[in-house]
Write a structure and sequence with these properties.
The chain is mainly beta. The chain has one helix and eleven strands, in the order βββαββββββββ. The strands form three sheets. The chain has a four-stranded antiparallel sheet with strand order 1-2-3-4. Strands 5-6-7-8 form a four-stranded antiparallel sheet, with no helix packed on it. The chain has a three-stranded antiparallel sheet with strand order 9-10-11, with no helix packed on it. The chain is globular and about 40 Å long. 29% of the residues are buried.
């Protein structure tokens, strides 16, 4: 792939242009058009806002075209949201995982319908989240372990 040669875009991923709390990103082809959509989550200090930008528009230079915007958790939560996808898994449509600052994880299908949520005492110490098939894996920084959840259960 090599080094980036030149900047081809510079834009705000969230609708609130005054927000400066950082963002998280996850990219995958949610709608099946062959281009990865870009899911953008507000960082600490922001609500659990998730905005999904059209991948085809970004890829083909048509600019920022928002397709979805929703709250991944309670509107008054100001811990931000970290996003992760499970990518393309054996013909299944990808899912979006949102880890909220208060320690709760929500899983959404490609139409961004909430499939479920998970919470336990380890989530506040969660460092990384990965979804593979029907399994959700988290690294727990305070306990040096990997936690595994069954999303199908």
């Amino acid at each position: 792939m090599g080094e980036p040669r030149h900047l081809v875009g510079d834009f705000f991923g969230l609708a609130d242009l005054s927000f400066r709390g950082g963002i998280s990103l996850a990219a995958v082809d949610f709608n099946g058009d062959g281009c990865d959509e870009l899911a953008v989550g507000a960082g600490r200090g922001g609500g659990p806002v998730v905005r999904v930008l059209d991948g085809a528009a970004l890829t083909h230079g048509a600019g920022v075209v928002p397709r979805y915007e929703f709250l991944a958790g309670a509107a008054d939560d100001r811990g931000g949201v970290e996003l992760e996808t499970d990518g393309e898994v054996a013909g299944a449509r990808p899912r979006l995982t949102a880890h909220l600052g208060d320690g709760e994880i929500f899983v959404f299908d490609p139409s961004f319908t909430r499939l479920g949520s998970f919470r336990n005492r380890y989530l506040k110490h969660c460092h990384e989240i990965h979804v593979h098939g029907d399994r959700l894996f988290m690294t727990s920084t305070g306990f040096d372990s990997v936690l595994e959840y069954d999303l199908a259960a």
